[in-house]
Design a protein that fits this description.
Distance between the termini of chain B: 55 Å
Strand content of chain B: 15-25%
CATH class of the largest domain in chain A: Alpha Beta
Mean pLDDT of chain A: 93
Radius of gyration of chain B: 27 Å
Strand content of chain A: 15-25%
Order of helices and strands of chain A: EHEHEEEHHHHHHEEEEEEEEEHHH
Number of strands of chain B: 30
Strand order of the largest sheet of chain A: 4-5-10-6-7
Number of helices of chain B: 18
Largest interface: A-B, 29 and 36 residues
Largest sheet of chain B: 7 strands, mixed
CATH class of the largest domain in chain B: Alpha Beta
Number of domains of chain A: 3
Largest sheet of chain A: 5 strands, antiparallel
Helix content of chain B: 25-40%
Mean pLDDT of chain B: 95
CATH topology of the largest domain in chain A: Uridine Diphospho-n-acetylenolpyruvylglucosamine Reductase, domain 3
Helix content of chain A: 25-40%
Oligomer: heterodimer
Distance between the termini of chain A: 56 Å
Shape of chain B: globular
CATH architecture of the largest domain in chain A: 2-Layer Sandwich
Structural class of chain A: alpha+beta
CATH topology of the largest domain in chain B: Aldehyde Oxidoreductase, domain 4
Number of helices of chain A: 11
Low-confidence stretches of chain B: 5-13
Number of domains of chain B: 3
CATH superfamily of the largest domain in chain B: Aldehyde oxidase/xanthine dehydrogenase, molybdopterin binding domain
Number of strands of chain A: 14
Shape of chain A: globular
């Protein structure tokens, strides 16, 4: 066990680059390769650099690459990678159609961190506790990955490969996340348990439900801080689709969630408590999303 | 004279012009506009930057220390180890203006052989830049051979335990014997026994420790630092073998202290490196340095066995108290004394039996923290009262009411309280302010909780505490105050301006206060022990009164009246009997100046002096006086997840007399927020001596988003020993905050978590356990 030193000064032994276009960014990334790191909001990278877990030779700031920021509505909702969490939380289309994501952004932390943190940074950091990840998963988001040569779109469910690990290849930049339009009768919700408001989650859960009358026609459930990556809950979803949306059905699905997750004990919570509250907040999120789906249909 | 037995007399009948009002503090504009320099803002030409190398393990023998590579690094000016010290130890005793012979419990400055806690300093480096200094630390080669340590107070008391302190790990122990506890228990119908535990916590002031030192033309080592106590200059001088007159500590406005800046922190390292290099040296702790670099709040284990008659009268109180001191004494003996004295709380108990001890371990050392042991005592006695009420089937407030101390009653040490004791009024007002408890909704249960308290203010009387203060009037009628008191953010300097302003008829905002300089401002002691206003407020009051008396005498001559008839307000001098007769204050001052009338005064205020309490019986006087009050809290608890939301928090205190009402409310609000964190989320967790919550990412302080609106109810009995009858409020604002939360949570869930902090996990488990049992 060693002392952490994360309010230390960052060692200045790196070059700081500020591309103005994506093309420039790709060139810089190609020139400096594996020893370069992309900087978006810095709320994760700078902490890691202070703790000497990351010691890049070059830090490439994306803050001046205008094409990476902003939210546009088309066939899908495109959220630029460097859009701040705060901007996502206040976006009209997000408020209108992606409640779980909006709630995840609002639960993100203090306003100052919300203003610095970006949606792209939050998922590229690939923390199992990333608040936006479960929400984006249940909204069926995809990651748009570009390199100097090609663009590929990866469903977010295939994006995370381990703690801090993703499918992003050297030379690639996450430029946006894309969210398909919600189906008619969709309701969603995000819940988070943390010791104080401005804290990393002990457990968080996001749910999307699509209802047709009393029947669940589609469902997605994802949790954070309960395994090596943000996790989608296929078993629980299987137990709900096609069923009537009743408190009993949601409670039973939540029981499955609590069994399927693989939490650990750490300084924030024990494995036992994580399982216990996962069940409760999964149940509550399902109930809330179900009610919201009805309200949406009524409009 | 006010009646002391009731607040029902209402508002006091004194017409102050500034005192008691909620005023913008004199230090506020500078802070709001970003102009206030804090200690860390000071830089000097040719300044070096320092860093501290700390032991990574909690218990070890240093078998090798090689700093040659670090010394050879270009840009490094000095690397100091124990071998470079003339004297290896520094005193860890109470600093301040006390005549008390200090204890012989010193701490090693840098590890010479044994590492006794994780983070203990091994070497200090000064270099041209912080980065070079940091790099130099990584070049220091240290071999630490682990030696068996002891990491909890139970193991530490076993005969075969590793010895961390003395021959038995016993840092201090006390006894209180009042009446005959066996007689008391024989008279009891019901005996209630419980054990309560509290955790290590961190002060978490906004501004970590920082300072800048330089040697001046007289060979004086000057240190500008963030401190609660400029009097530590004596300890620094002693530790360096220098005359006291050759070390000077100057404070700045401080970004929070809470007791954590009473001990020597960065100052000694700065002084040593300044002396070694002949250059200015700056040392600023990172947040993590701060976690490892100053003493924490003591964890306590407190057992209460209390006898009650069926109708709820306490017949006997047997209390067993154990605190954890870590490997060095620091303030632990005194903190234990406070906890012992406060043992039964604000209740009249005829038969009291207390045994207390402070035990050394290889966990982090502990020292002063707001409330100084009386806080932990309150956590125990107030939860015990609620548990007893439950057993007895008596309303919690009513049970307290039947046992409250009143003026003239003897506390546990036999001392009879002389000032007002308005605990009952505070309880009733606080509970009334809570209003109705909301109806439970699903898994959400609502709870109300209350905690009353007794907190001494001022130093223990055998420390023979004094404070000096100086007031002077310039030729143009403007006023200066000089006081060695530090200003730790609570408005200390502003209150001095308000006091001098009240007495001299000058608006407080027009008064300049010089403070916190151990060589040029009159020494006043620390800003701790709720003594700042009490001691320095009185010293400045005495000085201002003396100046006022001389000016009034001259004015009386001018008006052809008597000095008694002269009053001062709005920068005018006038006759009370005929307010049309006025003269501008500055004209009076000019007359006095031309006649050589002394327009300045250096005054000393002496607190009551006394002897130690009897070591066998614990009987005698400990504190000059006490503050009383109560906090009430409304919570919502999610019984499934264990999450607690504090909905309302009320602090009701009799503070004797407010000087600045806004500052009083600030103390209460801050104390409440700090108490909420203490009760619910804050905990320094040591696993075998290793800190596993070493930053503000793991150590969780509540933010404004976690805090309810806090309501302050301020009563003024004018019965205290401070200026104009003020009592201390710095610590009291915090003392009952945490147990009030604990009692509200217990009320909500119908069962109790006995060990702090009340994390959601513990609460959820307690609920499940109770449901299984019930």
């Amino acid at each position: 066990m060693f002392m952490n030193t994360n309010t230390r000064l960052v060692s200045p032994e790196f070059d700081y680059l500020q591309p103005k276009t994506l093309a420039e960014a790709f060139t810089m990334l190609a020139d400096h390769g594996g020893s370069a790191k992309l900087l978006a909001g810095g709320t994760d990278l700078l902490v890691q650099m202070k703790m000497e877990r990351q010691q890049p030779s070059h830090v490439i700031s994306l803050s001046r690459v205008k094409e990476l920021a902003g939210i546009t509505e088309g066939d899908v909702l495109t959220i630029g990678a460097t859009t701040s969490i705060r901007d996502v939380s206040r976006s009209g289309p997000v408020i209108a159609g992606y409640t779980a994501l909006q709630e995840a952004c609002n639960a993100y932390s203090t306003v100052s961190v919300m203003l610095m943190g970006t949606i792209g940074g939050n998922i590229c950091n690939a923390s199992p506790a990333a608040d936006t990840a479960p929400a984006l998963l249940v909204h069926d988001a995809s990651a748009v990955l570009r390199s100097g040569k090609a663009t590929r779109t990866v469903p977010l469910r295939d994006f995370f490969t381990g703690p801090g690990k993703t499918v992003i290849q050297p030379g690639e930049i996450l430029t946006a996340v894309e969210l398909p339009k919600p189906a008619k009768g969709t309701g969603s919700a995000f819940l988070k348990i943390s010791r104080v408001v401005a804290d990393i989650s002990q457990v968080c859960v996001a749910v999307v439900l699509v209802r047709d009358g009393d029947t669940i026609t589609d469902c997605r459930i994802a949790l954070g801080s309960v395994g090596p990556t943000p996790m989608r809950m296929k078993q629980a979803v299987g137990a709900l689709i096609g069923k009537r949306g009743t408190p009993e059905a949601f409670a039973a699905a939540a029981d499955i969630v609590a069994k399927d997750i693989t939490p650990i004990t750490d300084v924030r919570a024990t494995e036992k408590y994580r399982r216990h509250v996962s069940r409760i907040i999964a149940r509550d999120a399902l109930l809330t999303a179900w009610q919201r789906a009805a309200e949406g249909a009524a409009k | 004279m006010n009646k002391l037995d009731s607040a029902a007399t209402g508002e006091h009948n004194v017409n102050f012009r500034q005192i008691g009002k909620a005023r913008t503090r004199t230090d506020s504009p500078g802070k709001v506009f970003g102009k206030t320099p804090y200690a860390g803002d000071y830089v000097m030409p040719d300044m070096l930057h320092a860093r501290v190398l700390r032991a990574k393990v909690p218990s070890a023998r240093m078998t090798r220390l090689d700093v040659s590579k670090a010394r050879a690094l270009p840009g490094v000016a000095a690397v100091l180890t124990f071998k470079d010290l003339k004297i290896g130890t520094v005193a860890t005793d109470i600093p301040g203006q006390t005549g008390f012979k200090r204890r012989a419990t010193d701490q090693q400055i840098l590890v010479d052989e044994l590492v006794r806690y994780q983070g203990e300093p091994i070497a200090i480096v000064a270099a041209e830049t912080v980065e070079i200094a940091q790099h130099a630390l990584s070049l220091i080669e240290v071999d630490l051979e682990p030696v068996p340590g002891v990491y909890n107070v139970f193991d530490a008391q076993k005969p075969d335990a590793p010895k961390v302190f003395g021959t038995d790990n016993l840092v201090a122990s006390y006894k209180v014997r009042k009446g005959d506890v066996e007689v008391g228990f024989a008279a009891a119908d019901v005996i209630v026994e419980n054990t309560f535990t509290t955790q290590y916590i961190e002060h978490a002031f906004l501004e970590p420790e920082v300072g800048l030192g330089w040697e001046d033309e007289q060979g004086v080592i000057n240190i500008r630092s963030s401190t609660q106590a400029v009097e530590t200059f004596r300890y620094i001088a002693d530790a360096m073998g220098l005359p006291h007159s050759k070390v000077r500590i100057r404070g700045a406005l401080v970004g929070g202290g809470f007791g954590g800046k009473c001990d020597v922190t960065v100052e000694l390292y700065i002084a040593l490196l300044t002396k070694a290099t002949g250059r200015p040296v700056r040392l600023g702790y990172s947040r993590e340095d701060s976690f490892y670099g100053h003493g924490k709040r003591h964890p306590f284990i407190i057992n209460h066995k209390t006898g009650f008659t069926r109708d709820g009268k306490i017949t006997a109180s047997k209390i067993d108290i154990t605190s954890e001191s870590g490997p060095y004494a620091f303030m632990s003996p005194y903190v234990l004394m406070y906890a012992t004295e406060a043992g039964p709380g604000p209740y009249l108990v005829d038969h009291v039996h207390i045994d207390s001890r402070s035990i050394a371990t290889n966990n982090m050392y502990t020292s002063a923290f707001r409330g100084f042991g009386a806080t932990q005592a309150c956590i125990a006695y107030e939860q015990q009262m609620d548990e007893a009420a439950k057993v007895l089937g008596i309303d919690r407030i009513e049970l307290r009411r039947r046992n409250l101390l009143k003026t003239g009653d003897a506390i546990a040490t036999g001392f009879k309280v002389q000032s007002a004791v308005w605990t009952e009024e505070c309880m009733d007002r606080a509970m009334a302010a809570l209003g109705e408890k909301p109806k439970d909704k699903g898994a959400i249960r609502y709870g109300h909780g209350l905690a009353a308290y007794q907190q001494g203010y001022g130093r223990m009387i055998w420390l023979h505490d004094t404070a000096e203060g100086w007031v002077g009037v310039e030729m143009d009628g403007t006023v200066l105050v000089r006081s060695g008191m530090t200003d730790i953010g609570a408005g200390q300097t502003s209150s001095l301006a308000q006091i001098a302003g009240e007495l001299l008829g000058i608006d407080m905002m027009d008064i300049t206060v010089y403070n916190s300089d151990s060589s040029t401002t009159p020494l006043a002691g620390t800003s701790s022990a709720s003594r700042g206003l009490y001691m320095s407020g009185n010293a400045v009051r005495l000085a201002a009164e003396a100046v006022r008396d001389r000016l009034a005498a001259r004015a009386a001559k001018h008006f052809g009246s008597t000095a008694d008839d002269v009053d001062f307000a709005n920068a005018q001098v006038f006759l009370k009997s005929d307010p049309r007769q006025t003269m501008p204050f500055k004209e009076l001052v000019a007359v006095c100046a031309s006649e050589g009338i002394h327009r300045a005064e250096l005054a000393i205020f002496r607190a009551p002096f006394g002897d130690w309490i009897d070591p066998e019986t614990g009987q005698g006087q400990v504190h000059p006086d006490y503050t009383y009050g109560a906090h009430a809290v409304q919570v919502a608890v999610d019984t499934e997840t264990g999450e607690v939301t504090i909905l309302k928090s009320i602090g009701a205190h009799d503070i004797g007399q407010a000087v600045n009402m806004a500052a009083v409310e600030g103390q209460i609000e801050g104390g409440v927020a700090q108490g909420h964190g203490y009760a619910l989320s804050e905990e320094l967790i040591y696993k075998d001596g290793y800190l596993v919550t070493p930053s503000l990412s793991e150590y969780l302080c509540p933010t404004s988003m976690d805090s309810p609106r806090i309501e302050c109810i301020v009563l003024e009995s004018r019965s205290g020993l401070g200026p104009f009858g003020a009592k201390g409020i710095g610590e009291p604002g915090h003392t009952p905050a945490a147990p009030a939360v604990a009692n509200a949570v217990a009320d909500a869930i119908g069962t109790r978590v006995f060990d702090f902090p009340l994390t959601p996990e513990k609460i959820a488990n307690a609920v499940r356990k109770a449901r299984k049992a019930g």
